[in-house]
Amino acid sequence: MREFRYERAADPAAAVALLAAAPDGAFLGGGTNLVDLMKLGVATPDVLVDVRELTSREVADLPDGGLRIGAGVPNADLAADRRVRERFPVLAQALLAGASGQLRNRATTGGNLLQRTRCGYFTDVTKPCNKRSPGSGCGALEGVHRNHAILGQTIAGSDDPATCVTTHPSDMAVAMVALDAVVRVLGPDGEREIPIAELHRLPGSDPSRDTTLRHGELVTAIDVPALGMPSRYRKVRDRASFAFALVSVAAALDVRDGVVRDVRLALGGVAHKPWRASAAEYVLRGMPATEASFAAAVESELEAATPLRDNAFKVPMARNVVVRTLLDLAGRDTERELA
Amino acid sequence: MTTMDRLVGAGVDRIDGPAKVRGTAPYAYEQDPGEPIAHLAVVQSTVNRGRISRLDPSRAEALPGVLAVLTPANAPRLGKGLASDLPVLQSLDVHYQGQVVAAVVAETSEIAKAAVGAIAVGYDAEPPDVALSPDREDLYAPEKLMAGFATDSIIGDVDGALAAAVVSIDATYETPTQHHNPIEMHTSMARWDGDSLTLWDADQGPHNIVNDLVTGFGLDAGQVRVISPYVGGAFGSKAFTHPNQMLAAMAARVVGRTVVYELTRQQMFSLVGHRTPTIQRLRLGADPEGRLTAISHEVVEHTARIAEFAEQTATPTRVLYAAPHRRTTHRLARLDVPPPTIMRAPGETPGMFALESAMDELAVVLGLDPVELRIRNEPERDPERDLPWSTRNLVECLRTGAERFGWAGRDLRPGVRTEGRWLVGTGVASATYPTRRRKAQCRISVDGAGRYVVEIDGSDIGTGAWTALTQIAADALGTDMASVELRIGDSRLPFAGGAGGSTGLASWGTAIVFTARDLRKQLDEQHGGQPPAGGLSVDGELPGESPHAKTHSMHAYGAHFVEVRVDRDSGEVRVPRATSVYDAGTIVNAKTARSQLLGGFSMGVSMALHEGSVTDERYGHYVNHDLAEYHVATNADIGEIDISWLDVDDQLANPIGLKGIGEIGITGAAAAVANAYWHATRLRIRDLPITPDKYFRELGES
Ligand SMILES: Cc1cc2nc3c(=O)[nH]c(=O)nc-3n(C[C@H](O)[C@H](O)[C@H](O)COP(=O)(O)OP(=O)(O)OC[C@H]3O[C@@H](n4cnc5c(N)ncnc54)[C@H](O)[C@@H]3O)c2cc1C
Ligand code: SF4
Description:
The structure holds two protein chains of two kinds. Chain A is of the alpha+beta class. Among the domains of chain A are: 1-51, Uridine Diphospho-n-acetylenolpyruvylglucosamine Reductase, domain 2, CATH 3.30.43.10; 231-329, Enolase-like, domain 1 (2-Layer Sandwich). Helix content of chain A is 28%, strand content 20%. Chain A has twelve helices and twelve strands. Chain A has a five-stranded antiparallel β-sheet. Chain A has a four-stranded antiparallel β-sheet with strand order 9-10-11-12, sandwiched between helices. In chain A, strands 1-3-2 form a three-stranded parallel β-sheet, with helices on one face. In chain A, α5 (89-96) packs antiparallel against α8 and α10 runs antiparallel to α11. The relative contact order of chain A is 0.13. By secondary structure, chain B is α+β, with helices and mostly antiparallel strands. In chain B, α7 runs parallel beside α13 (669-681). The longest helix of chain B is centred in the C-terminal third of the chain and has 24 residues, at 504-527.
């Protein structure tokens, strides 16, 4: 573990300035991920700028019925917020499906979004990993990868510096992607807004970068626009609680007169980022809300899957739980629920 | 039952409970040695096999706050005669990944850990050989198994009987490497006063640790004191000495100060042992009525290159069912892995998964109720030792369990019950574990006011032994619990073996009963039944095994009934309810016993569904080496569990009539879950754990 300096700032701008001057520094949220990685020697910041008390802990109403969630809001508080539970059940359910009560009390919205992968080679500094140590190779491609990605990986051989086949671990982020959230960021050059689908990236040729954030950019809040349809989150995991997703589904469905008017679908546990199932959404709009259409839609999405030696099970698992989740949602009457 | 059980049997609250709940019970890490404590951190090898070619401690030594860096080049020489991985830092050779190759002692644990990062080590390494397979050409038969069991047992003509059997099954089962992971990390705090060593240590029996320290540091037994009254779980990993005790003592000697070494959670996966993986081929032959004609149980498992540990995996098969032709064998592969060790019911836990799964498969082929199949094969005598049972109530456990669970009328067909998206099934398995006892000594003193002090180096690793022993002592002394102070967990106390093999209460409790009888006799005969004003102290001893152990076969038994639900979309598994009934002889404390049996069963569910250390055969390490990725059942995974026991005792085993309860709960539990999984889904999963991916594998969808 590397020795580090701990800093607090007067306001977000000062925090950003502090980090801008520290190329090896990092923001500290609840620390439930970052501090673990520091203890393992995976993260080696020389400065920690504590933003947990600095970023907003408020959930505020937006004029359109959406919510602005401060980056400092604890996961537990967000899951318990009445507005979240009523308007965005998918988000509350995703949060509650993640980690444990103790961790959710401590973890922040900003930190959750930016938590790092759980790949066992990433978290072990004695093993190769292109994400942790660019160019060292990918331990997982031909190693233990039962819970790795089936979509959008970079597969170019174990020794290739571009290879990475891991997943993004956050449950909350999957729901946020389905909700078309917008991430508000303050950086050295001022504020900007990033549609969440553009925040997390695929490994491409640089697995070391999880997101499109630039060094020193602080997440200040996440805006979740109004949804207007029933939604839910379904997570499949190795045990009943306190395990990362094998596959998860964030879905929202608007069915009128038996026809899909609108749908949102995002998958977790399948890719380097929360996977917006745009192909499936496209296929589904205007189709009858039946098991057959749901199956056809998800299959069109999963056609692109390139499972690894030991994780092909995720394809039928994802197919089944997407179909089941959509059927559950279709069994409910949008108009009555929203009345 | 005997007349002495006034307190024995009662569900008395733990006497150490309030201190533990309030956080005032000092564990090894929390001891105050009376001086500033130095901290130790270790550098571990990143290869499985080879030799250290370069090790430069100079950057670490230069860090402010670092007191010493120990390496194979400068570490004090330890005495000859240490086994396995105990000769720490004595050679440049590397035998397993995670072996300690250097240790830093520093003013704080943070400095020590930072210094570890400053030590660069190079190796001349060979590729790791860590893959267990029944096809390896170097499998060998150990001379004997753990606990002295014979390696093989062969009775009759097994192959002939199998070939002639009307009904038979032949299946191979696999269990993975498992790590104990008690909540409290292994911790050792060492302090030298001249040539005398005090070690506050998290272990299962201080006397177990003393010998290795005596050997390693060239001391007399009187110069070593190991203290461990409070231990936060163990499961076998804390039974024997591991590198941590040697390192703490060595480092404290070098820096001349108290040194503490607390393992990290990750280090719990390499330095303190594991349960060997097993590959077990089971063949059963039976007549059309389901009477077994032949049983064959062949085990392949691993051990370390530097230590032989031969788990007694097929031994339950030697006692559980009748059959004229029978064979059990054990073969080992020596691999570049850390030394395996005992883990809750070593032998029975993996072995009963295979045997009890195979019995279920046989019942399916026969179209017979699996409870009935077991009852039909109940042996009148120990089928291999040809001895009478001391007591055996397996059939009654099965019958009582079936009744409590609501087994009657169960549809034998698999995969036909659904509730919503859940596939629902039920399963059964037997449980068994040997009943033994070991040598133990005890001292009981009484003062003029009739207050007793009972001293014995027993160990309460969270089991409730402290409380149960106090109950036993109070009854044996004819007094109440408040009048008895029990002292345990200190090698200065009279000798006792560690907590292991479910022998704790049988050994320590019997020593207490014997000593108490002596004391009362002396009081009666010499003091008119009253404690003399100046008090009286009596030393007593239990020599060892029951005199009946040679003429009787002694075991605890049980039966598990389990309901399993499998989500047909995702393959997720739940165990909403279970019933377990035990024949464990006298139950000393109804409350802590229930917790032990519940914990054992839950660990079996955890084994069935979650636990497994996953090896990367290229790099030779356990990939999921922390508790986020090595899954242990959570509360949410454990449903309603109905625990009960038969009102029986076993006077041939010991005067208390108990059989031991620490391990019986886990035996057979994983098979009951796997059998119920089959009944729910039609899918027979023979390699644990039963994770959701295997559902799709068995369906042929992945
Ligand atoms: C055992 C275990 C099990 C878990 N299980 C799950 C699970 O099932 N599902 C799940 O989703 N999660 C799970 N988690 C992860 C948990 O949700 C995350 O650790 C947590 O959400 C991170 O939040 P934090 O505030 O503690 O982040 P930190 O650890 O403080 O930070 C994480 C990262 O975000 C950066 N950061 C923090 N705040 C900001 C900000 N405002 N702006 C820019 N950068 C910032 C940090 O620099 C760091 O890189 C688990 C964690 C553990 C330890
Ligand atoms: S999958 Fe990605 S994170 Fe895992 S070892 Fe490969 S490069 Fe590293």
